[in-house]
Every structure is written in structure tokens, then in C-alpha cells.
């Protein structure tokens, strides 16, 4: 009897949370606290949109003589190209949080580079944005067709 | 132990009755509810899923082995979900040791050795890696895999085709009945995932035309075959049609996979869909859903025909043995 009650409770909770997550997926209305449905929602709502542009990040380290050189961040990201690019965007955070996470990420990179013996005084991060092209991901990633914005600089 | 499953040569009539009940011919709502959600069933279907899913996870993590230091140690660029000491990325040596434990747990789980503990250990480490690194990727498949592992802890999937059964009953194919509840939850979750993914596309503005497919074929995930398709300059109308076909498929598959008349078509469609995504967008992880379609069968369709147990089997506590996939035809013949 107790076992059957427990089993029915499990079923009830599961169906309730899943249904609430479904409602949130469709309507952005939270029937339950968001924390309760977050996981379930996360299982059923990938790839909700896309953009007409591609983007990437440029990381540079400042040498003691003041010049800047490019840092190959891909060495720290042994993932497929899509995952690497997605992780750089720090998409898991909301816009406000991301503004604080970019400097944190840059600081971490500076720390790692210094641990490898590279005597950088600072790290700066640019965000590049360019139109997508059937000719390839990087095809229009040229100075003429790219918008570049400084995101952060850390020391 | 359910006598109807273990008595000598479970009769075809009993099996037909079982399958009929599985399709809702019980007497009351409550009896149908209990039968659908909680009845005891042979464990073979869940055992097969355990082996396939466990093997997939083993592969998923094993290919990360060369890069453990960058992925999960303080040599990488990790910003854990929680800034707690326990989640501070460890040294590369410790990271490799922890990773080895995960691989061992997954191997043990796949083999059905201390199945429940192996599943729980695998989940614990998966959650740990999610907190320190994987969450930065923020994928639905990681969540699905962790959820599945959690359910499998309680599933009884080690009750056949397992080292546990070999050690307990002297045979890899000995089996003990389990509750169907875990299978129901997993299959419903897969259906809910497709339904959510499909239904939301009906309302999301980006999914109202085929342009999103073109963007996908020219974005960060696109592979060379995808770019080649994009360069064909196919008119937008064809992408619009493809967009609607995808939506129609994703909305209907959560229902179609449950019906015998349609499920194999949906299995084939799902396989083509996920393989196509893997080829065109390099998103290969959802291929794990293809073998998971087995969860939409009734366990009795995958169940054994237990022979009459020999006195020695009874003495040794052997309950049944397995034959390869005759049940469906036998059930249809009604004999």
C-alpha cells in the first residue's frame, strides 16, 4: 500500500512538473516556481532561434613592451567547433550576468597564460560579428565586413 | 516474483491477455492506471536499454579522455556553476583519477555489476562534471542523459543480461521481474521532449519560415555538407516546406511511436532526422535517442519464452532464460 502511494506520488510529481514545463515552453507562463521546472524545460526546448550573423571572440594579451598579441584560446577548448563557439558566448548566463562573466573569463585566461610563463600585463577581448555566408563560416570575417566591439580588458 | 511470468511456459493465451491489458482492456480506470504504470514485467527491455545507453555514455566520456585536463581541471578555462571549494577545478592528476572512476562506474553499469550503485555513481560524477564544466555548454541532451541515469538507478535494469544475475543466479540471462514505472517515465520524457521541441516551433517567430534552416546551414554548427546545400541556392519555398515537415514530424512523433501501426515509420523517421542533424550540423549526441525508441515497446513484446524450468534450475533459483525476438509473431498468431 505504502509502495503504491509512493509510486503514484512519483507519477503525479513527474507529470505535474513536465506539464508545467510544457506550458512554460509554449507560453512563458510559470505554473510552478521556475526552479522546479527549469530542468524539465531544459530537456524540451533547444534551438529556439538563430541569427543571420556569425560571431566570434578575439583574445589578445599585452606584452611588457605594450604591444598586443593574439591568444589562441582554442587550445583551452578541446571541443568541436560548434561547442567551442557556443561556450565562448557564455550563453548559459542572462545578458546582465554575462556582462560580469566576460571580465571573469578574461581574468581566468590571463591567469592561465601567466601560469604557462607568458608575461602578459593585460588581456582584452573583442567581439566580432559578420554576416553568414554559404561560402563558409569565416568567409565574410574580414575587416571590411566585420563589426568589432571591445568587450572587456582586464589586468 | 510474478508467477504468471515464471510458471512453466507462460501460455500464449496469458501472453495475449497481458498484451491486451497493455492496450487498455482492463476493467476500471484504476486497474488500467495501475497496470499501465506499475505492473511487474520482465526486465529484458530495460536491460537492453541499459546496455545500449550505458555503452553510449561510456563512448561519450571515453572520447574526452585525451582532453581531461583542459575539460575538467584547473588547466582549463572553467567557471563552475557554484563558487564552492568542492567544485574548484582540481589539478590534472586528480581530474584524471576522478575521470577514471566515472569510466569505471559507467563500465560497471553497462555490464550490470552492482547496477544500482554504478548508476548512482555515474550520475554523481556526471552532475559533478555538469557543475564544473558541462553547464557552460548548456545542452538539453546532457540534462536528458542525467535524468535517464537517475531513473535507471531505480529501474531494475540489472535484473537480466548482467553480471549481477550471473553472480546471483549463475546465468547472465537469468531474470527477475521489475516494475514498468521506470520505462514509462523514460518513454514519456522522450515523448515530452519531442512534443516540447515541436510545439514551441509553432509559436517561435524564428521558426515561421525556412530561413532558420538556411541560418543553421551557414552557422557555427554547419558542416561541409550543410554549406554545400546552402550553396545550391535552393529557393526559400523549399526550405519553408522542409520547416513545416520538421514541425509536423516533431509534433506527431510523440504520439506515433506508441502505436503499433505507425511506430516503425516514426522510428525510421526519427533515425533519419537525428542522423541528418549529425551529418549536417555535427550535433551527434541525440543519436542516443534512436536505440531509446525500444522504450516504446511493451516489455512483454521483448520478453522471453521461459522454458519449463528444470528441477535443477528451480533448485538453483534460476527463473528464466531468453530467446531471440519471437514474441511478437507468437502473440499475433494467438498461439
Q: What would the keywords be for this entry?
A:
heterodimer; A: 155 residues; alpha+beta; 2 domains; four-stranded antiparallel sheet; 4 helices; 4 strands; elongated; B: 335 residues; mainly alpha; two-stranded antiparallel ribbon; 17 helices; 60% helix; 1% strand; globular; disordered C terminus
Number of distinct helices of chain A: 4
Percent of residues in helices of chain A comes to 40-55%
Please state how the strands of the largest beta sheet of chain A are arranged side by side: 2-1-3-4
Number of strands of chain B: 2
Count of the separate structural domains of chain A? 2
Instruction: Please give the number of β-strands of chain A.
Output: 4
Question: What sort of overall outline of chain B do the alpha carbons produce when their principal axes are compared?
Answer: globular
Low-confidence stretches of chain A: none
Please give the oligomerization state of what you see: heterodimer
> What is the rounded distance between the termini of chain B?
25 Å
Strand content of chain A: 15-25%
Q: How are the strands ordered across the major sheet of chain B?
A: 1-2
Mean pLDDT over the full residue set of chain B: 86
Radius of gyration of chain B: 23 Å
Estimate the helix proportion of chain B, in percent: 55-70%
